[in-house]
Amino acid sequence: MSTDSLTAGPAQSARPAAAAPAMSWLRFFRSELRLVFGRWRNLAMLAVVVILPIAFGVLFRLTINSGSGNTGGGGPAFLNQLAGNGVFLALVVLTFMLLLLLPLVTAVISGDSIAGEAGLGTLRGLLTVPAGRTRLLTVKYAVIVTFSLVSCLLVAGVSLVMGLLLFPTGPVTTLSGTTISLGSGVLRVLVIALYAAAAMASLGAIGLAASTLTEHSIGAMAALLILVIGSEIADQVPQLSGIHPYLPTHFWSSWDGLFRDPVDVSGMQHGLLSFLVYFVIFGGIAWARLNSADVTS
Amino acid sequence: MTVQPSGDEVSFGRAARDEISFGRPGPGDLDPWKPPRDEVSFGPGAAEMEALPDERPMDGLALATRGLSKRFRNGQLAVDNLDLSVPAGSVYGFLGPNGSGKTTTIRMLLGLIQPTSGTCQVLGFRVPDDLTRALSSVGALVEGPAFYPQLSGRANLARLDAADRTADPATAAARIKQALDRVGLLAAADKRYRAYSLGMKQRLAIASSLLRPRELVILDEPTNGLDPQGTREVRTLIRQIAADGATVFVSSHLLAEVEQICTHVGVMRSGRMVYSGPLDDLRGTGARRVLVRTSQPELAAKVMADLGLAGITETGQQVSAELGELQPEFICERLVHAGVPVAGLETPGRSLEDEFVQLTGEGFNVDG
Lengths: 297, 368
Description:
The complex is a heterodimer.
Chain A: H1 3-7, H2 21-37, H3 40-66, H4 79-82, H5 87-99, H6 101-113, H7 115-120, H8 122-128, H9 133-166, E1 172-173, E2 179-180, H10 182-211, H11 217-236, H12 266-292
Antiparallel strand pairs in A: 1-2
Helix pairs in contact in A: 2-9, 3-5, 3-6, 3-9, 5-9, 5-10, 6-9, 6-10, 6-11, 9-10, 10-11, 10-12
Chain B: H1 12-20, E1 61-71, E2 77-87, E3 91-95, H2 102-109, E4 117-122, E5 125-127, H3 131-135, E6 138-141, H4 153-163, H5 172-182, H6 198-208, E7 216-220, H7 228-243, E8 247-252, H8 255-259, E9 264-269, E10 272-278, H9 279-284, E11 289-294, H10 297-306, E12 313-315, E13 318-322, H11 328-337, E14 342-346, H12 352-360
Parallel strand pairs in B: 3-8, 3-9, 6-7, 7-8
Antiparallel strand pairs in B: 1-2, 1-4, 4-5, 9-10, 11-13, 11-14, 12-13
Helix pairs in contact in B: 4-5
C-alpha cells in the first residue's frame, strides 16, 4: 500500500486476487442468513409458526372429540377427513396459515430487506464496500426465499407430527374416496409445503420491489399485507371472476388435486406459472429500481 | 492562486500547476506532477470540456471530477459544475458550511447517487461505470456511522467484510482485529453497537474504512459529535492513514479540525467550489493588516490616511488598516512623529478562519 501502486496506474496496482464470485456470494449469503435468523423479531415469528400448528392440532382434537366426529360443512375441505387421518391436519393448518400468517412472515422479511438497510443507514455502507447493487438484491431475495421455505416446512412438519400424534394414522383416504399409503400421503404434504413456499417466494418478490421504494420497512410490509388481503377479498367476489386468475393469491391453495385420484396437478401448474410471472415482473421492478435509485438515506 | 469570491471556479490549469509542488514525489523517473499533459487544455475557457479519459490514470490524481452537477428531483441544484482535483498522497480537506453540497459530492464519488451531468474518476476508474474496481481500494465513511444495533462492533465489521466481493475470507478475522485495534476499539469489540458511545460509533465507522489496505480513504465529517479528545484521536488517526501512503479526503464544516492535518483544501459554497489548492496558499491570500492601539484613534486614523493606507477602520481605541507595501516600523515611526500615543502596534496574521468565512459567507444563512 503506497503511492507507488497508484501512480503506476490502476492496471498494475496490486489488488488482492478476487475470490471466485460464487464463493464470495455464498459468504455474503451466509452473513445475511445469520443477520436475518439472528434477529429476535424473526425468531419470534418462527416460534409462532411452530406454536400455531400445535395449538390448531390440540384445538381440533378437542372439537372433534366433543362433537360427533363431524364438524359439519363449515370448515375447509379437509376438516371432515381429519377425524379419519392425522395427515389432514397438515393440510388444514397449511390452508389456514396461507391466509395470513405465512404471508405476514414473508411480508416482514421482504419488506425489511432493502428498506430496513436504507432506514438504518447501512445500505450506503454496503454499497460503498462495494457489495454491488444486483448482488445485494440477489442475496436479499435468496434469504427471503430461504426464510419463507423454512416457515412453510416448519408449518407442514410440525402439523404432520401433531396430526400423527393426536389423530388416527394409517392409509390415507383421498378426496376421491380411494386410499393411498401413509408414506405417499406424507410425501404429498411435503410437496404442498414446497408449493406454498413457491407462492411465498413470488410474494417475496413483490415485497422486495416494495422494499426498494421506501426507507420505511413497516410501509413496505403494510403495503404487501394490504395487497394480500385485498387480493383474497377480490378473489371471493363473484362479480370479479374475470380477474380472479390474475390475482397474486388466487392459486395459493390450488393444491387439493394432489389428494384426488387420479392426481390432478393442473391447478398447481397454473399456480407455478402465476408465481413465475409475478416473480419476473416484480423482480424486474426491484432490480431496475435499486440500480437506478439515488441512495440518499 | 487567486481567490474569486464571486463563486467562480478557480481555473483548472492553474490549479494543476500549483498542486505540482505539493504532492509527494512519485517513484522513479515518473514524476506525476510534472507534465499536466491533459490538464493543460483545461483552461478557464474550456469549462465545457467535461470528458475525462477512459480507463487511464489521471496524472497523479486520486479523485477527479469535471463539470459534476447534481440536481435533485425537487429541483434543488446541490452540486453545480464542480471540478475537483485531489492529488494522490494528499490529505485533502473538503470544506464548506452545512448544505453546501459536500456530502452530495461524496455520494456521487462513491456511486451512491447518479450525477445529473459531468464525470467522476476515482483512482483512475470511471464512476459509476467501473464502480467495483474503483471502490475496491477505497475506504469510505459517509454521513455518520450506521451499523446494526443488535450486533457487536466486531460482528458489524464482519458483516461489511462478507459483503465485499473481493475480500479474502481467510484473513477476515485478523483484518477485523487489526482495524479495531487501530481505532482503539479492541477492548469493546464484542459489546453491542447499541451500547457504544457516539465516539465509539464514529471510531467503528473509521475502522470499517480500514478493513483492507486502502489507496484512498474518504471520511465525511469524521469528527461530527465527538468531544475534543475524540477529535484529537481522529486527527491522529488521519495522520497515520496518510503516513501509510493513502490519500485522505476528509470533509468538514469545521475549519479548525482540518487545518492542522490537511495539505490541500477545497472550499464549497452553495454547490460550487470557491477555492481549491494547497492550504498554505489559502493562508496567504488575504491582505495583511496593521492594528494600532491608541488613546487618540482619530489622529491615528488621519495619519494613516495621509500615508495612503486603505481600509481604515476605527473601533474604540483601535485603528486598523491594510498594510499594503509599507513596513509596520515605518508606520509606527510616522505615528509617533505626529504625536500619536502608540500603546501597541501589531500586524496580526490573517487567520484561516477569516479566509474561510470570507469564502463561505457569514452567518447562518444557507444559500440556495
